[in-house]
Amino acid sequence: MSNDTATATTAQPGTAPEPPPHGLGVSLPSAEARAKTEGTFPYAADLWAEGLLWAAVLRSPHPHARILSVDTTHAREMPGVQAVITHEDVPGTALLGRGRADRPVFASDVVRHHGEAIAAVAADHPDTARMAAAAVIVEYEILDPVTDPEQAFEAEPLHPDGNLIRHIPLRHGDPDAAGDIVVEGLYRIGRQDPAPIGAEAGLAVPRPDGGVELYVASTDPHTDRDTAAACYGLDPERVKVVVTGVPGATADREDQGFQLPLGLLALKTGCPVKLTATREESFLGHVHRHPTLLRYRHHADAEGRLVKVEAQILLDAGAYADTSSEALAAAVSFACGPYVVPNAFIEGWAVRTNNPPSGHVRGEGAMQVCAAYEAQMDKLAKKLGVDPADLRLRNVLATGDVLPTGQTVTCPAPVAELLQAVQEYPLPALPKDTPEDEWLLPGGPEGAGEPGAVRRGVGYALGMVHMLGAEGTDEVSTATVKVHDGIATVLCAAVETGQGFTTLARQIVQETLGIEEVHVASVDTDQPPAGPSCRGRHTWVSGGAVERAAKMVRTQLLQPLAHKFGMSTELLQITDGKITSYDGVLSTTVSEAMDGKELWATAQCRPHPTEPLDGAGQGDAFVGLAFCAIRAVVDVDIELGSVRVVELALAQDVGRILNPAQLTARIEAGVTQGIGAALTENLRTARGLVRHPDLTGYSLPTALDAPDIRIVKLVEERDVVAPFGAKAVSAVPVVTSPAAVASAVRAATGRPVNRLPIRPQAAVVTATQ
């Protein structure tokens, strides 16, 4: 990967050392970095309590079966077992789900996917708990699973709500429009797992008032609290969610199906109960990226300008709806990509099957269609005999253009500038055919490949994502800023998942109040809600709330001084802990102005509203958009089908750079996740059964798989409706990089490459090809 170089300055003898830089635009390190590096950071799996019991969950070995009976007698009689619970022990609402509540806490009559929870056990030792869970006897009538999403339309209903979750027909322009050139394609996208660094874990502690506290790595604590309270039959005030250290999150990865049994067991036993999932349980229990089937037809004129796009998009939601409706809206809305398309006719469906559940994973919906529409652009370029990058430049979207949903792009959309930046960036040197450079072969060191079989390919992709929620989602966050004794404290329920919110909050307060020491309080549901940690929400909404609260404190601080000197607060500025007036008459420090007082303010941030898509897929559904261009360079062994990503050159519009080092890290992480989706990551199933649910059967990219990532341009064109003008940065590289890698493999092999991840046989070139 590319690395930014840091320079250190040493103070000269007799001079005071320079104060550390702070505020927006500075690479302020995370306050948690040292603890995480030293291994002292408290994660959910590290929690402990006096009188602790251990939980284990019994999961279905079948993807589809009718439950005839559940016998917990043997499990209850085992020494050390304190409680065994099933669906009969759920006192409140028995359904959960982030987008739609249609998933039972415990299966009662039917199991609908491999790994669905049936019972849970609490015991005095983790081994005892697992043995007791295995001792629960379940009698099944095995049913034929529906695993092909195309068959779900005709199959018997798998759920009381039916098999169809949502259908979106998008109609834009003239249905009879046609182009001189037509290309078609069928594409399949695999099931990518979030693969969290640490598997799900948590602790439930009963309260004296009959309630319960949940210590979990939640990314949306208030939603989790409300769901838990409804499940437990309690008022929300009697359930508290305390967020523990989140071990990295590439989605809303903390599934409520892991959390709810904990509280039920704690309430039943009156003891603290802890659950630490195995990696297999993690794979089986949480949601994954939607496997997707896409059919496309692109029309273009003789000059290569797009005339019409027709597409059918089918999302496999698995057993339950979760956030499939939102994913489908993104897929349909962005089905044409960041291109001007005067006529678009898209049909999108999300359906239930007996496959593993799907839900929110970074770039959901947008990643799948990006791989398809960019493959179509490559086909058009080949048929027209033009350079693929030049073809894209003829069609790119810009500010003021209209999306197929009818929404006008009002935010900065420098797509042409991004593409030109990666197109003009120098290509990497070709590998040398010498023994010391054997590691350059796609097979790696000691690989079986021969240098003569290696071909190099260069491919391009343009991607786009929406920020914040969509289709009328009420986005709001609340924050409080307190200042006392020269120390500022931020209280906001925005969860730090690795996206850098706590660092950003510190920078905002430092910039606004000139106070260097800023602490961000830990998150729990006693604070006002801030919403989920996804789609760049907390940079925009929670960061905006922190900024407004800090500005209110700033006004409280400066008003007495302004009144004393007969000027407005706008004529005073705070820099490096000093308050000065525009004319130099006033000069004092922040601590002197505070004079021992405590100042505080609470503020909210709520972006402008959006609206649901109508019956024709039309509407202003999105608050803001972000764009990315990537040029991929790959080496392909055309005999073995192995692929090595040599370099990815990336250009992205970021609005404003708030923390350069943090931004670079987020982009590089997003690109690497996209490479996994392109080449290795696919949670495979056989008739609904998950095969190899572990990190040996599921191949994540490692440091050896990471290519050189060249961030060649970051366009800082501020979005005027966003606080600070900044845009979300991590999702759009995930969306774009798989399509770019596939494009490069197509260029190297001449093969169509219509499936992700790319299978070796798709990159093999025979003598006749």
UniProtKB/TrEMBL annotation:
Spans through the membrane: none
Pfam families: Ald_Xan_dh_C, MoCoBD_1, MoCoBD_2
Biased composition (Low complexity): 1-15
Domain Aldehyde oxidase/xanthine dehydrogenase a/b hammerhead: 38-144
Domain of life: Bacteria
InterPro entries membership: Ald_Oxase/Xan_DH_a/b, Ald_Oxase/Xan_DH_a/b_sf, Ald_Oxase/xanthine_DH-like, AldOxase/xan_DH_MoCoBD1, AldOxase/xan_DH_MoCoBD2, AldOxase/xan_DH_Mopterin-bd_sf
Location of region: Disordered: 1-32
Entry protein name: Molybdopterin-dependent oxidoreductase
